[in-house]
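Q: I'm building a small set of examples for a reading group on sequence design. Run inverse folding on the following structure and report the sequence directly after it, with nothing in between.
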């Protein structure tokens, strides 16, 4: 029986998509699960799979066409079947599209390809001097800086004798006495006028702005931060990776994803979404993982992460990240997340807060592991500490619930062997 394939909805707020390429030509046979076409959304180029087997009788739109979601794009039928294309399309247009009509139905709950960014009270300022610290780590008092500028001294060549190695006035005076012929600063010049460049927003930047603005305006955020001992986690990872081939080595984030998923089993209130005047507690635990792209962020999704072993989580993450960065993600790679992890540890970030990704109830922001002095059994020692912050929707949960979730999450990662057993 002939069927209409429609432009699928591949994201929470997707309204249209561009049909980039037909993979299956007219008259060709296709099996269920094979890629039928490539569709470009605001986020990426997605490979769309056929949901049934048959013969692709006709393309209804040409490559390069921008098509609203739900619009018929092709006719699929059986071999030798006679099809009245006009009547079938007319009937399809009159009918209300349903998820079953889409070439790639969204997993429940549907969620947009996610942009996850740290929340901020103001735009990030340019680097400035704080308490006399100069770019490059040189510290100097305001008086010393003025004297150095006046006499053309290079502060990087002067040893400070003030608190913490800070350069003070007496250090400048000593430098002038011992090295009066230090090279003078180059003469000041008046630079020529440099033109500013005005660029239109890219599709990705536009969707980032739209989604982040909506999330901050509509979701009442609150944030809770805790610090944990990361040494047991790093030690277990080191032991595991010593036994694994290079292409299967686990990242810290693989452990974090698994720990978050197991913890959501214990605290289902955070594996939830607001649905009108109801709270929807999801049956599946699908962890979104924020991935840095050249011009923004995308979230890939580890489905049923609570049921998968660490090695499978690591393998799926690597595969989907590679597809995302090459712009060849599949619809299931970016759909259906119920909770998101945003890890900026690789950027030497102490900690940050992330914006909740609607319709999810919470997002976990992970900072870097740092060596810091800690007190253990009354003695100061060097510890490996990591800060994590949970941003949550106050309509769905509250501070006490989030605090308990974080306590349990820290307990899992500080005794990480359980991650290999569950």
């Amino acid at each position: 029986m002939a069927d209409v394939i429609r432009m699928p909805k591949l994201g929470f707020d997707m309204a249209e998509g561009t049909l980039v390429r037909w993979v299956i030509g007219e008259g060709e046979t296709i099996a269920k699960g094979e890629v039928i076409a490539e569709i470009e959304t605001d986020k990426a180029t997605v490979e769309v799979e056929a949901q049934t087997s048959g013969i692709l009788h006709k393309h209804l739109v040409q490559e390069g066409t921008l098509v609203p979601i739900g619009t018929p794009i092709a006719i699929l039928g059986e071999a030798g079947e006679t099809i009245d294309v006009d009547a079938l399309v007319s009937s399809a247009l009159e009918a209300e599209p349903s998820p079953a009509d889409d070439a790639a139905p969204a997993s429940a709950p549907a969620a947009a390809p996610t942009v996850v960014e740290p929340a901020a009270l103001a735009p990030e300022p340019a680097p400035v001097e704080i308490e006399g610290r100069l770019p490059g780590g040189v510290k100097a008092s305001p008086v010393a800086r003025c004297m150095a500028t006046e006499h053309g001294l290079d502060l990087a060549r002067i040893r400070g004798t003030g608190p913490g190695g800070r350069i003070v006035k007496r250090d400048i005076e000593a430098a002038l006495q011992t090295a009066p012929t230090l090279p003078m600063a180059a003469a000041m010049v008046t630079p020529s006028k440099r033109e500013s460049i005005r660029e239109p927003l890219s599709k990705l930047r536009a969707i980032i702005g739209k989604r982040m603005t909506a999330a901050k305006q509509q979701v009442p955020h609150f944030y809770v931060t805790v610090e944990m001992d990361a040494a047991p986690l790093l030690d277990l990872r080191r032991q595991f990776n010593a036994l694994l081939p290079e292409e299967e080595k686990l990242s810290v984030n693989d452990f974090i994803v698994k720990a978050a998923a197991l913890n959501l089993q214990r605290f289902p209130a955070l594996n939830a979404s607001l649905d009108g005047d109801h709270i929807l507690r999801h049956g599946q635990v699908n962890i979104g993982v924020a991935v840095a792209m050249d011009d923004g962020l995308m979230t890939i999704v580890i489905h049923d992460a609570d049921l998968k072993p660490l090695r499978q989580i690591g393998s799926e993450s690597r595969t989907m990240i590679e597809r995302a960065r090459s712009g060849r993600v599949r619809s299931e790679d970016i759909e259906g997340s119920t909770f998101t992890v945003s890890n900026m540890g690789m950027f030497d970030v102490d900690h940050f807060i992330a914006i909740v990704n609607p319709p999810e109830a919470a997002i976990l922001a992970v900072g870097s592991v740092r060596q810091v002095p800690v007190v253990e059994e009354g003695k100061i020692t060097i510890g490996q500490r990591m800060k994590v912050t949970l941003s949550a929707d106050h309509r769905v949960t509250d501070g006490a619930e989030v605090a308990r979730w974080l306590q349990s999450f820290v307990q899992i990662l500080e005794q990480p062997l359980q991650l290999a057993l569950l």
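Residues 203-218 form the longest helix (16 residues).
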